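Feature request, filed as a ticket because there's no other form

It would be nice if the structure record came with a short human-readable summary line next to the tokens. Right now we just get the raw output. Example of a typical job, pasted below so the devs can see what we mean:
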Amino acid sequence: MPFHEMMVAPIRQELTRHGVRELRTPEEVDHVLGPRAGTAVLAVNSVCGCAAGRMRPAFVIALRNERLPAAVATVFAGQDLEATARAREYLAPYPPSSPSLFLLRDGEVVFALERKDIEHRAPEDIAMDLRAAFDRFCAG
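Raw output as currently delivered:
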């Protein structure tokens, strides 16, 4: 069951105040992650401690990179259920994992950091991996 919106609003703002677009409906997910959408990075957000202490700070650091995807977005696992379910269709064969970070190009995952790749690492190290993926897959 989702948490009350008043409780999660500050968590959402940790990303949106940095220009990250929230995808709250399946239609928004399709528009940003679809087959002809170009490059997109997606943060699968959650209320857990490793999202707060590792994923969200790492994502913000990575967004300071010179090369960025055309779209920078997030879905909130456990909150925006339909949008998250649709996003996970694009993320297959990766199992549901939150928090997680994915880089997609034209609807296909080209880089992934699952919870297991996030939960025991420093935000700076996670950001370094994500920046390297931006440099490899995104136009300058």
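Something like this underneath would help us a lot:
The radius of gyration is 13 Å.
The mean pLDDT is 95.
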